[in-house]
Amino acid sequence: MSETTLRFDAIGTGWELDTVLPLEPETAEAVAARIDRFDRTWSRFRSDAFVARFAQGPVSTAFPDDARDDAIALFDTYRRLHDVTGGAMTPFIGASLERLGYDAAYTLVPQGPALAAPAWDDVARWDGEVLETDRPLVIDIGAAGKGRLVDLVADVLVEHGHEAFTIDASGDLRHEHGSGAPEPLRIALEHPYDPRKAIGVATIESGALCASAVNRRAWGEGLHHVIDGRTGEPTATVAATWVTAGQAMVADGLATALFFTDHESLSGAFACESVRMFTSGLTDRSAGFPGELFT
């Protein structure tokens, strides 16, 4: 479908934008500015990020005006994910990741035994405008944040007149076919243990497909980024997940939630379809997943 392809690195990962219409320089600049603004608010790897203040002690504050919509979308989504996973998913998982070595300096050296995340209602209150915390908290919105940013980049493209495009942020994808690219997009589901193989194919007409796997952002024996907030331990039962939804933020968050619960539980709270591959090699899928599995 591509008339223009733009490749760049941002927030620690590779991005690719394919558009049917030519991508003007001012559009590319607007995309870069939106990504930078999001990173300056949410990155736990930046000491100057807005969320860094929550790691210093108890805080009660509203988010900046230009980040308020993101805060509402992310915290409201995280609260729903927290509840549907019984507390396994939480934005207060940052200290647990740091304990395992996934810290701002990327030491990748565990600093001690696993650290469970604090129970949400014991340490924080979110009223839709102000986040109030009772102790230092390292906020990490990685399970849904990249998807949110994909949606924001999609908004920028639409604002600049693009109806047909594909955004691929290293596993988080948003595709809009518009009137200029009516053909659906076929995407291979990469085998988590052999990137040369696929376990199936998804077909996306319009919307998001997001994936998560234990072989991405992994270090050491059994250490990876999918952490159960209730224990602080990396998960060990599911190897990879794929989720389709209307928004990339939702698909991204649910791709992590599937490591802790099943599709039936998620579909009661979110409109989605999904595939899981277990560490045993077995797979399951929701009845409406738009694609096919080879195994």
Tell me briefly what this model is.
This protein has 295 residues and is α+β, with helices and mostly antiparallel strands. It has seven helices and 16 strands.
Q: How would you describe what is shown here?
A:
This protein is an alpha+beta fold and 295 residues long. The chain is built from seven helices and 16 strands. The strands form four sheets. The chain has an eight-stranded antiparallel sheet with strand order 1-2-6-7-10-13-14-15, with helices on one face. A three-stranded antiparallel sheet has the order 3-5-4.
What topology does this entry show?
Elements: E1 4-10, E2 13-19, H1 25-42, E3 60-62, H2 68-84, H3 94-99, H4 120-123, E4 124-126, E5 130-133, H5 142-159, E6 165-169, E7 172-176, E8 185-191, E9 194-204, E10 206-213, E11 227-228, E12 233-234, E13 238-245, H6 248-257, H7 263-267, E14 273-278, E15 283-285, E16 291-293
Antiparallel strand pairs: 1-2, 2-6, 3-5, 4-5, 6-7, 7-10, 8-9, 9-16, 10-13, 11-12, 13-14, 14-15
Helix pairs in contact: 1-5, 2-6, 5-6
Please count the beta strands (DSSP E, at least 2 residues each). Answer: 16
What are the segments in which pLDDT stays under 50 over at least 5 consecutive residues?
Answer: none
Strand content: 25-35%
Structural class, judged by helices and strands?
Answer: alpha+beta
Helix-residue proportion:
25-40%
Average residue-wise pLDDT: 93
3D shape:
globular
- Enumerate how many helices there are, as a single number: 7
The whole-angstrom Rg is: 19 Å
Q: Biggest sheet: strands side by side, in what order?
A: 1-2-6-7-10-13-14-15
What summary fits the major beta sheet? Answer: 8 strands, antiparallel
Compressed to H and E, one letter per element, the order equals EEHEHHHEEHEEEEEEEEHHEEE
The span between the termini is 29 Å
